[in-house]
Design goal:
UDP-N-acetylmuramoyl-L-alanine:D-glutamate ligase; 265 residues; 10 strands; binds adenosine-5'-triphosphate; three-stranded antiparallel β-sheet; alpha/beta; binds (4-amino-2-methylpyrimidin-5-yl)methyl dihydrogen phosphate; 19% strand; Hydroxymethylpyrimidine/phosphomethylpyrimidine kinase
């Protein structure tokens, strides 16, 4: 049977981030993609021009439409902009018996805030304890744990804190915002792995976080182990950045054709 993955996220009409990036990733990895929209975002490679949120009750209705009818082998959430929506997502995810990947989207790469300031407590209280894996970048991890992160050791401590204190099953701290090689730290409550790739000299990184977490979701839906899922997804996102598109007037989008092309699949 085909593996089925659901993304609960905001949109990007320019196709680089959010639900659009998630569905492209699912498709390229051979997974049947489904999507629930939290917020319709007017954005492009230069930034966010406007947002139009769904009522939380309608978010619930969309998830129910999917889960009452379709198999769900893994689910991810990206931008969940309001506290009410976070509560609605938590209420629904509790009914889905499948791995849950949280990409704790807070700020777009352009610097635009994508969630309510008061939402942090709800992340901690309801969502993080449900996570099979949470994938913060360094600024997001700093906001979650409340201390700053400079070194790889700090990244390890952040991952450990998110698992042991906040209750996620695993945490992947992404180092895309550091200098030097592109290094991410994964901790699953007992084992560590550091994933590294060469830093690619490009400004075209719009949607990398969405792409990475969607790839992890796709791999988990196919039954890969957590560590294998991150390994495959790191290769996927690195290839997508390496061959990213210089489209638009800002940070261009990643290239979802690159991973299969590099493998001649
Ligand atoms: N220039 C780069 N070259 C290679 N890998 C990169 C580069 N920038 C980011 N990465 C990798 O891309 C993945 C996404 O990391 P990043 O920290 O950029 O996430 P993010 O900030 O959530 O993404 P976004 O830019 O979409 O907000 C990580 O594996 C990171 O190491
Ligand atoms: C709907 C949505 N979700 C997530 C991001 C983060 O992506 P990035 O930081 O690459 O802009 C985004 N811009 N829009």
């Amino acid at each position: 049977m085909i593996s089925c993955a659901l993304t609960i996220a905001g949109t990007d009409p320019s196709g680089g981030a959010g639900i659009q990036a998630d569905l492209k990733t699912f498709q390229e990895l051979g997974v049947y993609g489904m999507s629930v929209v939290t917020s319709v975002v007017a954005q492009n490679t230069t930034g966010v021009q406007g947002v139009h949120h769904m009522p939380a009750s309608f978010l619930t209705e969309q998830v129910r439409s999917v889960r009452y009818d379709m198999p769900i082998h893994a689910v991810k959430s990206g931008m969940i902009p309001t506290v009410d929506m976070m509560r609605a997502v938590a209420d629904q995810v509790e009914h889905i018996d499948a791995p849950y990947v949280i990409d704790p989207v807070m700020v777009a790469q352009s610097g635009d805030e994508l969630i309510e300031e008061s939402a942090m407590e709800m992340w901690k209280e309801r969502l993080i304890p449900l996570a099979t894996i949470i994938t913060p970048n360094i600024p997001e991890a700093e906001k979650i744990i409340g201390t700053s992160i400079h070194s790889v050791e700090d990244m390890r401590e952040a991952a450990e804190h998110i698992c042991t204190v906040l209750g996620a099953s695993a945490a992947l701290i992404k180092g895309g915002h550091r200098d030097g090689e592109a290094l991410d730290v994964l901790y699953d409550g007992s084992e560590w792995e550091v994933f590294t790739a060469e830093r690619i000299d490009t400004a075209n990184t719009h949607g990398t976080g969405c792409t990475y977490s969607a790839a992890i979701t796709a791999c988990l839906s196919q039954g890969h182990s957590l560590f294998d899922s991150v390994r495959i997804s790191k290769e996927y996102v690195t290839a997508a950045i390496r061959e990213s598109f210089s489209l638009g007037h800002g940070s261009g989008p990643t290239n979802h054709f690159a991973w299969r092309k590099e493998r001649s699949i």
